[in-house]
Amino acid sequence: MGILIGLQIAWENEFVRVLIQSDNKEAIRRLIDANAISDSCSLVRAIAKLRNQEWFTDAQWIPREGNKLADALVKLDNLPNYDTFTFEVLSESLLSLLDFDRLHVM
């Protein structure tokens, strides 16, 4: 569901290139399958349909250790439960995790 919501936000904000990264190998395998648009899971089909819009998306598996920023965001205490939100500005600590991930991903 997080991938779908992230793609919806990216589409609404007119992004033209999006890289989907997940530590879930099965999710990535299903998303990059040529038959994702007819997958048995409606969530995979919805993501595939959105990915087929006029933009470039790619999907990549990364180990959990390679995404320290996402791990830190999940553990934040002060975020509202089940709400979708975007950060206008990242704190210095989150920016440093983003830099670490950028430099250390495969």
UniProtKB/TrEMBL annotation:
Positions of the RNase H type-1 domain: 2-75
Entries under InterPro entries matching the protein: RNase_H-like, RNase_H-like_dom_plant, RNaseH-like_sf, RNaseH_domain, RNaseH_sf
Protein's name according to its UniProt entry: RNase H type-1 domain-containing protein
SUPFAM superfamilies, sorted: Ribonuclease H-like (SSF53098)
Species in which this protein is naturally found: Hibiscus sabdariffa (roselle)
